[in-house]
């Protein structure tokens, strides 16, 4: 047993590689150096402060085994450099080091516990005034604006690893352009030695144009996937075509539909995962060979659509994390918990779909989009690609995923560079796509071994008014795990930029929205925000007089009474980075598709995503903050007065009660946070009581007084 355990530990150590990896001395990472005495003390790792894993961390286990058995000790070659231990926590959480085609059982990297977190970075102070003035003279105006003292300090005071925390509307992109101008003006780097990374093609293109306008130089600005494609095509797989997500999803969907219609065991498996009412309705009939899918049943079609979408998402995350079916089984057996049985069945459902997916790009010798970063990492580690960069800048760093982090790390291990990252932990809202907020919260823990690690804050914004700044700041900072930031508008006008609109029915809420639109300026820009696309039904289903003309494709809405008014509907996720004069938050309701959302996560998918934070609804809180900070002038909460969002209670009771004038909220359930509703026991009104609207998940009741 002991020998078997030691063998497993050594295999884990080899899979992790980077924690015992060896590199030529000429490319070894710089050793972390002390910060200048003039700067506040940087993050120092203290005993017990590092996040622990649910099981003992592989690196720690290996070290313990080495102490117990000298035979297991591995001495690095003299010309090699050892990767610091602290990077164990920064590995992709659930990634397996095997190809999609691997069928052998592998041991996944264990999941991290949410134990005591590393100490947070301390914000750097402003540089002395004379240094700020000198740097400002060198940089000049950026985009016709003079950079603030905070921006100048972040640019001129940057270390080898720098994180700039910039709140909504504080000028994150402008800071990046200013940093590039600083590098070019001081001859620290040439244009070809600077790389700017973003997360969407639109933002990368915008960044490239703004850099050209601000500096007059062409700087490489691209997405992580564009960089990954460049790396792949510069290696031995240069001629492989790209297989886009649509083509891959089509293959998966067609395979699913074929199996569902023709393969009885597969159909029974899919039906077994149904809700009880649907399974009771169709489960027995599904055993017949001549069974026809009930395509005229809305509930069945919804279930089938959700099932295939979940399967597609699971497959994409499997590729992103470089983990195959066998690895998923191992991961489930270790971490599936109470869902272990259901996950086994879901894996049986996914397995032929995953095989069809991988066979598709393997047959065509293509590069699939989800696996592009994985392929790029392998190319970098094999030496097939050599990067030329001295400075790498990352925008929206809060959206970093573990695979993207692993790519940047692989590039730094090949040849070190200075890292300058700009982001906002308050706006980390893409966990479903793989983004891991711990990468920005634990920035120093991830990067400080490469050199001095510093954090700056930019807190001055002119995007929205101080009352909204204060309310949104108090709301988001109820999550103490985030960095504390105190945004301010230097104009500091005493205003009222928030207002609640109430209604017990959809019709009443619709009329309240229309009444406010009639009061707004004719040429105003208006955003109708939803948590889901279905929130647009508030307008579409209650417009009996034909006041609105809705373009479902673009979300553009024409208001007959004010044709000059620009009105747009979109979800909060899509609105990130945008701003409008007036914003109506249509989704201030509780329930399954409320805000915060109560839709349960597919358990198997949860094994592939970053761990859920301890604070309830932590990401939904950040999403609500993003929604609040899309407006320049006034934000309207459209409140369902029969079942308001628990966030409405929080704003009403603790943050901004004055904006709820005329909007009365029902009592709140002390058990789950949903609203209480007056109910009657039988026909006797004297036997009335309050029951939770979250029933049957919450059975709290309270007698009427």
Question: What would you note in describing this structure?
Answer:
- The protein has 705 residues and is an alpha/beta fold.
- It folds into 5 domains: 2-90, no CATH class; 129-236 and 390-403 and 416-458, P-loop containing nucleotide triphosphate hydrolases (Rossmann fold, 3-Layer(aba) Sandwich), CATH 3.40.50; 242-364, no CATH class; 466-664, P-loop containing nucleotide triphosphate hydrolases (Rossmann fold); 666-705.
- Helix content is 38%, strand content 13%.
- A 7-stranded mixed β-sheet has the order 9-15-14-10-13-12-11. A 6-stranded parallel β-sheet has the order 3-2-6-7-1-8. The chain has a 3-stranded antiparallel β-sheet with strand order 16-17-18, with no helix packed on it.
- A hairpin with a 5-residue loop joins β11 (548-550) and β12 (556-559).
- α1 crosses α2, α8 packs across α13 and α12 (325-335) packs antiparallel against α13 (340-363).
